[in-house]
Amino acid sequence: MKKLFFLGTLAIMIVLGMSSLPNFTKANNLDSKLSGRVLLAVESNGETWYVNPVNQKRYPLKESSDVLSIMKELGLGISNNDFDSFNGKAPLRLSGRILLKVQGLGEAYYVNPVDLKMHYLSRPYQGLKLMQSLSLGITNMNLAKISVSNYENVSMINSDNVNIIDSGNVSIINSGFDPINLTVNKGATITWTNYTNSAKTVISPNNFSFGEIATGRTYDSVFNTVGTYHYYSSDNTGLTGTIIVK
Questions:
Q1: How far is CA 96 from CA 146, 155, 177, 179, 212, in A?
Q2: 166 with 188: CB under 8 angstroms?
Q3: Between the chain's N and C termini, which has fewer beta carbons within 10 Å?
């Protein structure tokens, strides 16, 4: 009797639990609920995806280079006046968007759909970690209902407004330089920051050599001559970066 009572109670709990789950039977319904969110595939290898609220498609968000692609290809330009008027919280129409301050240095902000707060993405590596920290777990079945897309020809702004800058930052990480390429104006200052566990030396043959940059330390260099500067890390010549000065 006790066993039958337990099984009956368990069945009721399962039915009630199923009725409380979101109804994602239709792909469009799922897309709208997850628009602008960062999704974490909890049943796979922990891959993360960004759901673009413009077309309701998901884009890979696995590496810092993906954050750069989001900024360049999916970003929405915004004026300083509009940005300041938001006072840290964007209007609902911008939920989930990546905002770029095109009148400044192209600073990027992610509007979290949960609370509409604008999160500064800083450097691509830090931006990746921030967006992943705001991710929402999703099953493989529900993730498969959202169409996959790539970063190509979907830009909402002229990327020239944000690519050529007067100052920039490069992170030295275990996998190389982040970002790999920067285009700057003549006279721009570039700051390299070492986020690895060992000292690094950045070298550009016939152009510059910084000496060792200790862990957590930075090095600044001003580029006053127009040209293309290819550089690499002394401990791994296969890890390269490029500065283009215009």
A1: 16, 15, 28, 23, 40
A2: yes
A3: N
β-strands 236-245, 181-194 pairing: parallel
Domains in the chain: ranges and CATH: 27-143 (no CATH), 163-245 (2.60.40.420)
15: which 2 tokens?
């039915």
Residue 22 in this model has a pLDDT that exceeds 60: no
Residues 6+ apart with CB under 8 A from 97: 36, 53, 76, 90, 111
pLDDT tens column, 193-219: 888 888 888 888 878 777 788 888 888
Query: Rounded to an integer, what distance in angstroms lies between the CA atom of residue 245 and that of residue 181?
Result: 11
Paired with 236 in beta bridges are 233
Report pTM.
0.54
Nearest to 135 by CA among 245, 51, 229, 67: 51
User: 236-245 and 227-233 as β-strands: parallel, antiparallel, unpaired?
Assistant: antiparallel
One DSSP character per residue, 163-188 reads HEEEEEEEEEETTEEESSEEEEEEEE
